[in-house]
Amino acid sequence: MTGVSRGAPYARFRLPGTRGSIELYREDGLVGLGRRAKPRSLDVIVTSPPYNLGQPYTTYRDRRPRNEYLRWIGDLAAAVDRALSGRGSFFLNVGSPPRDPWLAWDVAREVGKTFVLQNVLHWVKSIAIERRFAGRAAGLGRDVALGHYRPIASSRYVHGAHEYIFHFTRRGDVSIDRLALGVAYQDPSNVHRWRSGRDRLRCRGNTWFLPYATIQRRSRDRPHPASFPPELAEWCIRLHGRLRVRRWADPFVGIGSSAVAAVRTGRPFLGFDIDAAYLAVARDRVRAALERGEGGFSSSSGPGRSRPAAGSTRASAPS
After folding, report:
1. Which helix (H) or strand (E) covers residue 285, if one does?
2. CB 3.0–4.6 Å: which of 11, 122, 142, 160 could bond 24 by disulfide?
3. What are the pLDDT digits (tens) for 255-313?
4. Hey, how many other C-beta atoms are within 10 angstroms of the C-beta on 165?
5. Domains (range + CATH), the chain
């Protein structure tokens, strides 16, 4: 099942009930997209590249001159351009440290030279909700603070509690399945008031609350300095339209959150990383997800009935 040769995948798993598979390669992601995917054959690419913040990856050097880094992001856009189908979606997760708020937008502008920015989604990792603002329907008995963040010691900046998910397409005209991530109306009268309320759901909008999983020991439970929850990639697949995804990829798969999402959505997948230690964790997480029976996705099951956020998460950007 495993191998590190140039030709064979590091790991391959058959997706239950399909002819497709999940394949993980120890390979540079930009090279891998060109080598392993035919031109315009991938319907979705979900990824989170290094942010150039000096994160302690074991193999990759995460500190380059800004211009060099942005040129590399342009190379990523070119690799995606070759592999992405005509009606495909490119979901790019990027965050900015408080001291450099333009970083994520500089990355988006670079990718925007090749693609059209169709949606800007906000991944909210932590939020405080006061009872008086939540309304009676929320049923809160007290003020709550949800999720996790990395605190910063600063007299100038607030804690960073969100990141961006930039949704790029070729022309900005790709139809999406908004109600695949729908949420129930709090006021039942809205079900009849709005045409879109026929399914008793409304569009979730551009804010996605996906908290960090609580961990006991970082070296064991999150052995990667920067990863996201499997739900983030899973929701991207749902939003694009799960049944319209023939094959998808993550060129920076890390410890395998996207690969776990491939198990859950039942769509064939390619994942790439240059680090064998991370790929070993990704392989084990995929195997565990398959053994737990996390596949068998039903297109009618909405997020309100999905599993809670769990798994690995991306560390907040330092200040």
Report:
1. helix 276-291
2. 11
3. 999 999 999 999 999 999 999 999 999 999 999 999 999 976 543 344 443 333 333 33
4. 24
5. 11-124+162-180+205-305 (3.40.50.150)
